[in-house]
Amino acid sequence: MRFKFVSLIALITAMVIVFAACAGQAQPAAPAEPAPPPAAEETVETPAAEAEAEPAPEPEPEPETDDTTDAVTGATMDANDVQIALVAHSPDSILDDGSFNQGAWDGIQRFINNHGLPAGNAQFFQPHEGSDVARIDLIEGVISGGANILVLPGFHFINSSYDLQDMFPDVMFVLLDASPARDNVVRVQPNLAAIHYAEEQAGFLAGYAAVMEGYRNLGFTGGIPVPAVVRYGHGFIEGAEFAAASLGLEPGEVTINYHYFGAFAPDPAFAVTASAWFAAGTEIIFAAAGGAGANVFSAAEGAGASVIGVDVDQGHLSESVITSAVKGLDVSVYDMIAAFWLGTFQGGELRFDASNNGIGLSMASSRMQNFTQAQYENIFEQLASGAISVSSSEVLSEILENISLVVVTEL
Questions:
Q1: In angstroms, rounded to a whole number, what is the distance separating the alpha carbons of residues 163 and 3?
Q2: Per-domain residue ranges for the chain?
Q3: Mean of the pLDDT values across residues 27-56?
Q4: Mean pLDDT of the chain
Q5: Helix (H, G, I), strand (E, B), or coil: what is residue 15?
């Protein structure tokens, strides 16, 4: 009887232990039933203990410091230190124009990539209209948004940059193909670099190469006759003359049709003009016309004729482009931004020419058959050394005074 009683007590005790164990396991699975205070403390302390056990992962402060490593110098830089804006002169001036804007943007992008900066540190802006007031309003907003170095491409910024350099003395400006001026008075502050290129040398190379390649009936179409475009055209005439003399050609054997469209934006009428030239015997056109160059390309494609591109390598835009007269837009823009980052930015008027590889022909993508790389290097070296001098005059009559072999017809 006593054994049975003891056994019964043992059985009851075992059942209580099993029941308690089961109840303890089922408790976390019942969220509606709050855990007793001791259990809650254990749940809170466990992650804390685990976090203390592995103190390594502490690199969370990225939102506060936007630091990145300069891939060129190896220095640590704040991504906010270089906020670049490329500003167009009008709503019609697009980024991928295959010409001036694109060349400047290539230099900006190369800096961004080489220095490991976020893509958002460079932006492109267009004003709502092509006026000085609209350009200044836009730039004020861009600067208040954080931009601290602005690239202004082209002569349209001559007047607005004159004011902007004074309005924002702590912001750096890179003005391409122009100098800030008001009423023909040029004034350049230390925070503005006015970049100029020897377009006459680039045009000279284009004219020289065309004649050396074998073309005799040439054409030049400019956009608007602003100084840079005018120098391209005048240099083209001088280069053709120099090549004609080098080859011992007779007077009149080389001809050039010479014309300005009056705009840089594409217009079907420009294709009609170029097509008429090709139909009349023009073999190649040097198109220093910005976006309007696309009209010349299409006309040349239809006629099986050739084109020389401008500003940047335009060979990828058309099979008709045999080479391009380029200026170092990307190089000069890159150099100015790099100087800004290094704290060595200096304002003033700067010139890029053959002596510092500021201009040239796009020989790497050349489709010429007769004009060789060796010939190019030879003539380029003569320009770089000053052995050949090209006039930078913007008066056509002054250029034509020294032309005796090439016949130029203004149309």
A1: 110
A2: 78-197, 199-326+359-410
A3: 39
A4: 85
A5: helix
Rounded Cα–Cα distance for residues 286 and 325 (Å): 9
Contacting residues for 380 by C-beta, under 8 A, at least 6 apart: 205, 354, 360, 361
Give every CB contact of residue 160 below 8 A, 6+ residues apart in sequence: 132, 135, 136, 139, 152
Please tell me the distance from the alpha carbon of residue 400 to that of residue 287, in angstroms, as a whole number. Answer: 20
Distance CA 324, CA 361 (A): 6
**306 neighbors 368 (Cβ within 8 angstroms):** no
Q: How far is CA 175 from CA 122, 178, 325, in A?
A: 17, 6, 21
Helix axes 100-114, 329-342, angle to 10 degrees: 40
Q: Which two tokens stand for residue 177?
A: 């193909």
Strands 76-78 and 172-176, by their bridges, are unpaired
pLDDT at 41: 38
Give me the mean pLDDT over the 99-123 stretch.
Answer: 93
Which residue, among 192, 169, 170, 168, has the nearest Cα to 181 in the 3D structure?
192
CATH class of 78-197: alpha beta
Which residues neighbour 266 within 8 Å (Cβ) at sequence distance 6 or greater? Answer: 291, 292, 294, 295
Task: Please list the alpha-helical segments (H only) found in 132-198.
Answer: 132-144, 158-167
Rg of the chain in Å (alpha carbons): 35
Of all residues in the chain, the percent with pLDDT exceeding 70 is: 81
Q: How far apart are CA 199 and CA 230, in angstroms?
A: 9
Task: Find the helix packing angle between 293-303 and 268-279, rounded to 10°.
Answer: 40
pLDDT at 66: 43
Beta bridge partners of 164: none
pLDDT value at residue 54: 44
CATH class of residue range 199-326+359-410: alpha beta
Residue predicted with more confidence, 20 or 248: 248
What pLDDT does residue 373 have? Answer: 97
9 vs 95 pLDDT, higher one: 95
| Tokens 């003359």, residue located | 241
DSSP 251: T
Q: b/e string for 325-351 if b means 16 or more Cβ within 10 A? A: bbbbbbbbbbbbbbbbbeeebebeebe
What are the DSSP calls for 38-69, one per residue? HHHHHHHHHHHHHHHH--------TTT--EEE
Cβ neighbours of residue 103 closer than 8 Å, sequence gap 6 or more: 311, 312, 326, 327, 329, 330, 333
CB atoms within 10 A of CB 75: 10
Bridge partners, residue 76, by sequence = 69
| Tokens matching residue 165 | 């350099």
